Amino acid sequence: MSATKAVAHPAPGSRPQVLVLGGGFAGIGAARKLRKDEVDVVIVDGHDYHTFQPLLYQVATDLLPPVTVGHPLRDLFDDQPNARVHTTKVTSVDLEKRRAEFAEMGPLNYDYLVLALGAQVNFFGVKGASEHAFPMYTLADAVRLKEHILERWEAADKDPDLIEDGALNVVVVGGGPTGVESAGAIAELYRAIFVKDYPDIPQEKVQIVLAEGGPEIFTMFKTHLRKYAEKALAGRDVEVACGEVVESVTATRVTLKSGRVIPAHTLVWGAGLQANPIAASLGLKLEKGNRIPTQPDLSVAGHPEVFAVGDIAWIIDTKTGNVLPQLGSVALESGHHAGQNIARRVDGSKTEAFKYFDKGTMAIIGRGAAVMQGPHGRTMRGKPAWLAWGAVHLALLSTGEDRAKAVIDWSWAGFTHERADRITVRADAQ
Ligand SMILES: Cc1cc2nc3c(=O)[nH]c(=O)nc-3n(C[C@H](O)[C@H](O)[C@H](O)COP(=O)(O)OP(=O)(O)OC[C@H]3O[C@@H](n4cnc5c(N)ncnc54)[C@H](O)[C@@H]3O)c2cc1C
Q: Please, what is the angle between helix 25-33 and helix 328-347, to 10°?
């Protein structure tokens, strides 16, 4: 635990009530910034933990245990006397009445609201995807994929006919960072670990296909970084299939619009996001992906007491005029800024415009293989980019203890190639 000494929590009184919906990077960022202010902060999340999404692949591929990637939400606030945490689902928000409703708790009124409910997967109506695809957005998604992969390999070990049926083949959809990082992580698990775990299963019969509808993967990166990523994936025996759009999926087959049918029992969905459905219920005019457009100070038009931050928000970069991407660093920084602007309002001062400090765009393809493009066009690839990724993402972890845990796990895995978390524990088993 981060605090050993119990902190007295004064009962909520007549101070302004700040309701923070969502305990991701954005919600935590906002709530923590208000720790010294004369307000009562209530954080509500459907989970009792904060999820560090950039490490979900590592959970899905047995590199890290779920506890490294999920941190108890209450632990993050037990040293903040003006904060309370509740674990329940937000069911509706009435912006006119300044009130939110929840699945298992009475409604709460607010003076200030931070909308930080993130995004969710968008299957774009692909037939069978919601039933059979494996998205990668929550900790539960990562654990589900991990257990499915382990179960399929164990099944094929007992019944080799399953290999021909595609039990071990994986199709990953989407050539952006989520798709590329997932494909790279699964390939390393297969080619470096399972090759030893299952010596009788011929690896050459196991396919990993990355399907991207556009002509190239990693379109946000410069050409030489794209080429590097393609080469790194090819070196891990991942087939990059550009111009291929998934038409439908069943439990055992992936059908592409080109007519190609891939026998695969696993389809990982890394192709698209849409804002949390609460956004569409607010009666606001929304932007692409149902994201909530913000004013320069991150408040919502017509509602100066409401702030939208992180993945749910459509935030225009004041420097470039472009919309900011759905990234952890944008979420944390925008959350901080919303918290500061609420404190300014409470003090009777003017709010300030949000200025994003861009640390660059980066993605990992595998161990020692990554790409990075800095805000001024500087690029890196390979080990230096991999280390830069580690440094930037360590800073996003919520506590010093989490950072230490991650460094130990990464270093151990880096030196040993070991993936100790490849076991399945069933609570209902003997
Ligand atoms: C697989 C993956 C890899 C990524 N890799 C990187 C990376 O390398 N670098 C990077 O910068 N970014 C990365 N990102 C993006 C980054 O993680 C997100 O941009 C960031 O988490 C958004 O933060 P947020 O607080 O807006 O939303 P979230 O982190 O999604 O938090 C939203 C919170 O709201 C809660 N919630 C949602 N709906 C409800 C409800 N109805 N009731 C109650 N609670 C609810 C959720 O439980 C969640 O805790 C990655 C994302 C994914 C999915």
A: 30
Q: Is the pLDDT score of 206 beyond 60?
A: yes
> What's the rounded mean pLDDT across residues 311-329?
94
Tens-place pLDDT, residues 160-199: 999 999 999 999 999 999 999 999 999 999 999 999 999 9
User: What's the 416 CA to ligand 1 centre distance in angstroms?
Assistant: 30
Alpha-carbon distance 133 to 250, whole Å? 8
Does residue 178 have its Cβ closer than 6 Å to ligand 1? Answer: yes
182 CA: nearest ligand 1 atom: 1
- Residue 115 near residue 22 (C-beta atoms within 8 A): yes
Relative to beta strand 134-135, strand 70-72 is unpaired
331 CB under 6 A from ligand 1? yes
Residue 15, strand partner residues: none
Give distance in angstroms: CA of 326 to centre of ligand 1.
9
Is the minimum distance from the CB of 51 to ligand 1 under 6 angstroms?
Answer: yes
Q: Are 114 and 25 in contact (CB under 8 A)?
A: no
Here the tokens at position 222 are: 């410069």
Mean pLDDT of 417-425: 74
Res 3: pLDDT: 42
Closest Cα to atom 37, ligand 1: which residue? 117
Q: Which long-range contacts (CB under 8 A, 24 or more apart) does 367-373 make?
A: 367/188, 367/413, 367/414, 367/417, 369/184, 369/232, 371/218, 371/221, 371/225, 371/228, 371/229, 373/220, 373/221, 373/222, 373/225
Which phi and psi (to 5°) does residue 99 adopt?
-150, 140
pLDDT band per the 50, 70, 90 thresholds, residue 4:
very low
The reply to whether ligand 1 has any atom less than 6 angstroms from the CB of 116 is: yes
pLDDT of res. 225: 96
